Amino acid sequence: MLGCSTERKLRLQIVSILPAGRAWELLYLLTLRDFKLRYQDTALGLLWSLLKPLALGAVLFVALRFFVRIQVDDYHLVLLTALFPWIWFQTAVLLSTPIFASNGPLLKMVAFPRYVLPFATILNNGIHFLLAIPILVILLLVSGQHPNATWLIGIPLLASLQLALLMGVILLIASVDVFFRDLEHLVEVVLTMMFYSTPILYPLDQVPDSWRPVLLINPMTSLIEAWRDLLMSNTLPGLDLWPALVFTLGALIVGFEVFRRLEPEFADAL
Known about the structure:
Shape: globular
Oligomer: single chain
Low-confidence stretches: none
Number of domains: 1
Order of helices and strands: HHHHHHHHHHHH
Structural class: mainly alpha
Mean pLDDT: 83
């Protein structure tokens, strides 16, 4: 929940923005606020957004490559090119699930487009993901691989798809969470299950053929594979991305419809 001084300041800024209908300016304000507050009063600041996934990647690499002995070429790249976009997805979902419930006072004090709250959190985590891409570039260059111009098309394409997927999923679960707070704990369990059923620790081509259709039920499977193909092989996504596209479209339709129906009751429930 926002601190009193921060909340009062934000209220004044929102009130000044809304009469002119500048929703995008409100989105910018909230995204900037989250970006500034995330590592406020920490010595390393923004570096934590890079150090945490790198530290996790290092631990997983040592455990799986040297203890479990996974035999995959350039395994550190296979792991990190999937881990970075997954952390964007996971962190955005975890932080946004209670976004309406934890901002009750703000929702009651002034009318504004509620969907901007989760959208700002998704964008904030997307910015952290984009800031980590130079780390991947350095690792690729050290390994003798060279990014090319396909990144200029592929990164915006995949980032837009992941943003849309997140928006649909989060609007659904954040709206329901206002009325069913146990959902926050259920989401943590589901994300843990998704982590192991998404080809992050292993490439999809290492999965037995009989199990691949099961993994493709998970929308992040085809999306993570598309990120890995782009970042490691400079390959633009193709028809293999269809499960993520279908699920994203469905999530947006369902998410916005649930949000539209439940939003008028947020203030009373909070």
